[in-house]
From TrEMBL, chain A:
Organism: Modicisalibacter ilicicola DSM 19980
Domain of life: Bacteria
Residues of the MacB-like periplasmic core domain: 34-209
Keyword terms of this UniProt record: Cell membrane, Membrane, Transmembrane, Transmembrane helix
Residue intervals of the ABC3 transporter permease C-terminal domain: 266-375, 725-839
The name this protein goes by in its record: Putative ABC transport system permease protein
Keyword Acetylation attributed: no
Automatic annotation (TrEMBL), chain B:
GO MF entries: ATP binding; ATP hydrolysis activity; transmembrane transporter activity
Origin superkingdom: Bacteria
ABC transporter domain boundaries: 5-230
Cellular component per GO, a single term: plasma membrane
Protein name: Putative ABC transport system ATP-binding protein
InterPro entries: AAA+_ATPase, ABC_transporter-like_ATP-bd, ABC_transporter-like_CS, ABC_transpr_LolD-like, MacB-like_ATP-bd, P-loop_NTPase
Family: Belongs to the ABC transporter superfamily. Macrolide exporter (TC 3.A.1.122) family.
Pfam families (alphabetical): ABC_tran
Length: 849, 230
């Protein structure tokens, strides 16, 4: 520096040297840890979400059978296949139909699934090929069939024996334990029979007029799926039914979406916490470097050189922290996934590069945002400071620090959430809350100071410690306010992540309670009804109501052909093409909610005026058909036409695993038609109830949905575990902020306790005073944190997670008390060293001999 | 009359790397109630170390040391602190004011360790006596160096101590300001009848004390007036 200007290379070397020396200082270490933590949090969650997202999509694809499923009543043409293949998709053909399978004199209806050589596109089939159950990635080979164990039992066949299907006879070569795409079979209640596509023609089952569903499954990367979007939309308008797993992941609804948002939110909270830690550590860093800066100014360094020097130093710090943080994040997500996949086999694709870049960007943003304004002080140092210590530059304006940090954090919020208005709203709300908290903190500290004076004037004892501790905290109002706010933000972030987690888990558990039905029973004849329920009631089963079921087809809407009335996109709707299951019920079915109109009056059906009866319709179907209250639907039931007027719309939960109906009639109207009953029930593993039912009522079809239920639960528990892991991480980040902040105020406290020692205070008194101070700090910031968390949680619930906000009373107790305990303990542990030091060392007099 | 402060064969050794360094060795000293003693020495002679030992802020490596008739080495840190409470005052070269406390609050600090209900009044009274009655609510950074040292002087006397230690009290002040602070220090000392132990390298300052001792190569020797003049 002696020659005024030092080249870029020299500055580079100097910055590296400075950083190396600096690593001994606790504030630099705190900065390093905070930045590494921010990167670790964002990369860990980024990596994990990225892989989980792709993995879950794949698993959802497994449930559907592919990334896209096309379904229609006739074979797909080769032109369409070519277009899909050219877009980069792999195709598999599948045909579904119901037919009789027979052996000797016994006949059983079976649900046929005819697959080609590409089956399954995702996952594996669990099948017993004669040597125990194994997982294979193919279907039966031409010339043989696989059947469900139940069918084998009903037909009394084993592996190697033959079964007649249509005009052909096939040897059974496997017993299917589980199909990867089982949800596809949910609609068909007959036991499975799987055969190869090459054998279909020979069976003679496909004839004009037979009910056959042709499915074309496609698998491919997201880009390939995106390429055929227009094509799919066109097909849908032509009446082809299309299922796209990326758009409609089956069964999970928005649970997954919420989980992902939660994880992003937790990642952001961790970044915010790291930011707070960076801001705290930077203050101390700058204080410590003022002398260095002054000396360098003496030696002729320009303001610009100083800025460059310290900026470079911090850049090295950020980059090295990023590398360590990214490695930690990588290890964290790998550990998390290892933990998950040990329980559940979820194949995940390898981590991508994007989260890593995002992590480094986050570190730099946090450094600039949370440390920038404070660092500017360094370049304002006057060289005269070397001679006159009191010439410190003014500390950076608190508003500038908070303002810049907020701006950067708002940017990150936007980057992570992708929602500009929400980010802006949260940011402005956060700033407003900070102003309120600042004022509140100021008033609270004033109150503490006044109260402290009332704790008697006696020396010794708890009262003295309380008085002195409270005074120390309140008198250092500026510094204490900074800490109060930092801790309040920290506690609030920790609290929000904990609260949201609790509410998410509750929502999920409510979605699939323990006694969610795992069996459906259909085809219960009216005369079997009482006996059937007796067996259920005698066993350990919990069941939903028995619903009568009549099949009918919609033949007119408002006396016109349905195709002419419904919107074009609904013309191919299954509900128009097939017979619907209709039921009647006096009260609103369990789990249903009337959202419009009113439920049947008790005498509704007794005397239908002009032959029209009131009906209740599912709101989603009404929306698809473009009908509302007052519109009429005409059904063809057993050769007769019945017209109903919509008098209520119901909302119902299709994921509930209970019998659900689009249309409900009032009692008495449908009873004259042939009907059977349907119910769903839950039995524990190993219960003898299903066995009893099967032998007592062989005509009743029992469908075990445990496997599907298990899949859904599996997914929920996977994301739950992820949520727990991330929560632990955020809490850890919070504790590290507290640590960094308390370390940052270490110098001041050392000085204070040194002086108290000199004036004759004993170690025990000092320890108590500090205990009181820390506990008060924790209590007050806990209180403020609870307020902030409540406000922020309401914002997040309404704006982002789509949950109803509520007040969390326990938090108002836990945060202040927990805060007092936590900060009291950390603070006490940190100041142990100080209390053990001689006053000479505490006051820095040792070097002045 | 028995001495208020008594040291015999006092030594302090520090270990620096592999070297052992004797900062003070075999040092004797007696200070009697009411007298003022200056310890003169050049920079690095070990003056502040000696002051720290005498006040019980640090422990000697060897030797005997009694303060108010109590053997300091036999007491633990808390015992030594208890001995100082209310009976010993300090004035430091770098003032040692807490930057976040006002002048009044800084002065109150030692009082708050003691019982009593007139602390505020006492602190105000002493600040007024050192001429800072109008600046009680100023923070240290809003005060000049001389004013800061006057706060420190008020703080040293506010508990009405028997003994005041002053470590280069004018070291950070210009000559004029330093002179005024010293005048104040001696005036208060005389009025209160306090014993004063002053460590300095300033011969002019040392001459104002009843007795002068020279610290050289870790040992103390009495200096007569002529030697101090020189």
């Amino acid at each position: 520096m002696s020659h005024g200007a030092r080249g870029g290379g020299g500055l580079l070397r100097l910055s590296l040297k400075g950083l190396r020396r600096d690593l001994r200082a606790s504030d630099v270490r705190a900065l390093f840890v905070a930045l590494a933590l921010a990167v670790a949090a964002s990369t860990m969650i980024g990596f994990f979400l990225d892989r989980l997202d792709r993995g879950l999509t794949r698993q959802a694809g497994q449930l559907v059978g592919g990334d896209i499923k096309l379904e229609q009543g006739k074979p797909f043409d080769s032109d369409l296949r070519r277009q899909l293949e050219e877009a980069g998709l792999t195709l598999a053909d599948q045909v579904d139909l119901v037919s009789m399978a027979s052996r000797d004199a016994s006949f059983q209806p079976a649900s046929l699934k005819v697959v080609d050589g590409a089956y399954p596109l995702y996952g594996k089939v669990r099948v017993d090929l004669g040597g125990g159950i194994e997982e294979v990635a193919h279907g039966p080979s031409p010339g043989s069939i696989w059947i469900a164990p139940r069918l084998a039992q009903l037909l009394d066949v084993g592996i190697g024996e033959s079964v007649q299907v249509g005009q052909s006879r096939f040897p059974v070569s496997g017993l299917i334990e589980r199909e990867p795409d089982q949800s596809a079979g949910f609609g068909s209640f007959n036991p499975r029979l799987m055969m190869h596509l090459d054998d279909l023609e020979a069976t003679g089952l496909v004839r004009p007029g037979s009910r056959v569903e042709y499915e074309l499954l496609a698998k491919g990367p997201p880009q390939a799926v995106a390429r055929v979007e227009d094509l799919l939309a066109r097909l849908e308008r032509q009446g082809v039914e299309i299922e796209d797993v990326r758009e409609d992941r089956p069964q999970l609804g928005n649970a997954l979406e919420r989980a992902e948002k939660y994880l992003s939110l937790a990642g952001l909270a961790a970044v915010l916490l790291a930011g707070v830690a960076v801001a705290m550590a930077t203050r101390r860093y700058v204080d410590r470097h003022l002398d260095t800066a002054a000396l360098l100014r003496c030696f002729g360094a320009s303001q610009r050189q100083l800025t460059q020097l310290f900026a470079l130093q911090l850049l090295w710090l950020a980059l090295s922290a990023s590398i360590i943080g990214a490695l930690l994040g990588l290890a964290g997500q790998a550990g998390l996934l290892a933990l998950l996949t040990r329980f559940l086999p979820l194949e995940l694709p390898p981590p991508g590069i994007l989260p890593l870049l995002l992590g480094i960007l986050t570190a730099l943003a946090v450094l600039v945002g949370f440390a920038g304004p404070t660092l500017l002080r360094l370049k304002q140092v006057s060289a005269l400071k070397v001679l006159r210590r009191e010439l410190d530059p003014l500390p950076a304006s608190a508003w500038l620090v908070v303002g810049v940090a907020s701006l950067v954090f708002g940017g990150l919020l936007w980057l992570y959430s992708g929602d500009f208005m929400l980010s802006l709203g949260l940011l402005l709300g956060g700033l407003a809350a900070l102003v309120v908290l600042w004022t509140l903190g100021w008033l609270l500290l004033g109150a503490v100071l006044r109260l402290a004076g009332r704790f008697g004037n006696g020396a010794g004892g708890a009262a003295q410690a309380l008085r002195l501790g409270a005074r120390q905290l309140a008198r250092r109002r500026q510094a204490s306010l900074g800490q109060l706010l930092a801790f309040a933000v920290t506690f609030a972030a920790m609290a929000i992540i904990t609260l949201v987690r609790g509410d998410l888990l509750t929502t999920w558990q409510a979605q699939l309670p323990e006694d969610t039905p795992n069996y459906f029973a259909i085809n219960i004849q009216p005369d079997e009804r009482d006996g059937f329920t007796d067996i259920l009631n005698a066993g350990d089963a919990s069941r939903s109501a028995l619903y009568p079921m009549v099949r009918g087809r919609i033949v007119a809407i408002n006396d016109q052909s349905p195709e002419d009335v419904v919107p074009p996109e609904s013309r191919g709707d299954n509900a128009l093409r097939r017979e619907l299951n209709l039921t009647w019920k006096e009260e609103v079915p369990t789990g249903n909610r009337v959202v419009k109109g009113s439920w049947f009056a008790s005498d509704a059906a007794a005397s239908p005026a002009d032959g029209t009866v009131p009906i209740s319709m599912e709101d989603g179907l009404a929306e698809r058909f473009g009908v509302d209250l007052g519109d009429t639907l005409t059904f063809s039931i057993g050769g007769a036409d019945i017209t109903g007027e919509i008098t209520s719309l119901r909302n119902l939960d299709w994921d509930s695993f209970r019998p659900n109906f689009y249309i409900v009639f009032p009692p008495e109207v449908l009873e004259r038609f042939g009907h059977s009953y349907i119910t769903a029930f839950h039995v524990e593993d190993g219960s003898d109830v299903p066995g009893k039912l099967v032998s007592a009522y062989p005509g009743v079809s029992l469908i075990n949905v445990e496997a599907i239920l298990g899949r859904v639960r599996e997914l929920l528990s996977q994301v739950t575990r992820a949520v727990e892991f991330v929560l632990a991480f955020v809490l850890l980040a919070g504790v590290s902020v507290l640590y960094a902040a308390l370390t940052a105020s270490h110098t001041l406290r050392t000085h204070e306790s040194g002086l108290l020692r000199v004036f004759g205070a004993g170690g025990r008194l000092i320890s108590r005073i500090q205990g009181v101070e820390f506990a008060l700090l924790g209590f007050t910031s806990g209180l403020m944190g609870a307020l902030l968390a409540e406000l922020a949680a309401a914002g997040v619930y309404i704006g982002w997670l789509d949950l109803a906000p509520r007040i969390h009373w326990p938090m108002w107790l836990v945060l202040p008390l927990g805060g007092a305990l936590l900060i009291g303990l950390i603070g006490h542990a940190l100041s142990r060293g100080v209390r053990r030091q001689t006053p000479m060392a505490s006051l820095g007099l040792l070097g002045e001999a | 009359m028995s001495p208020i402060l008594h040291a015999r064969g006092l030594g302090k050794q520090v270990v620096s790397g592999e070297r052992r360094l004797d900062i003070l060795s075999n040092l004797d000293l007696e200070v009697f109630p009411g007298e003022s003693v200056a310890i003169l020495g050049s920079s690095g002679a070990g003056k502040s170390t000696l002051l720290g030992l005498l006040a019980g802020l640090d422990t000697p490596t060897r030797g005997e040391l009694t303060l108010f008739g109590q053997s300091l080495p036999s007491l633990d840190e808390d015992g030594r602190a208890g001995l100082r409470a209310g009976r010993v005052g300090f004035v430091f070269q770098n003032f040692q004011l807490l930057p976040t406390l006002t002048a009044l609050e800084n002065t109150l600090l030692p009082l708050e360790l003691l019982p009593g209900d007139d602390h505020q009044a006492k602190a105000r009274e002493w600040l007024t006596r050192v001429g800072l009655g109008e600046r009680m609510n100023h923070l240290p950074k809003q005060l000049s160096g001389g004013e800061q040292q006057r706060v420190a002087v008020a703080r040293a006397f506010v508990t009405r101590p028997e003994l005041v230690f002053a470590d280069e009290p004018t070291g950070n002040l210009d000559r004029g300001t330093g002179g005024k602070v010293i005048d104040l220090l001696f005036e208060l000392n005389r009025e209160a009848g306090t014993t004063l132990v002053l460590v300095t390298h300033d011969h002019h300052l040392a001459r104002r004390c009843d007795r002068c001792l020279g610290l050289d190569a870790g040992r103390l020797a009495a200096l007569d007036r002529d030697e101090v003049e020189a």
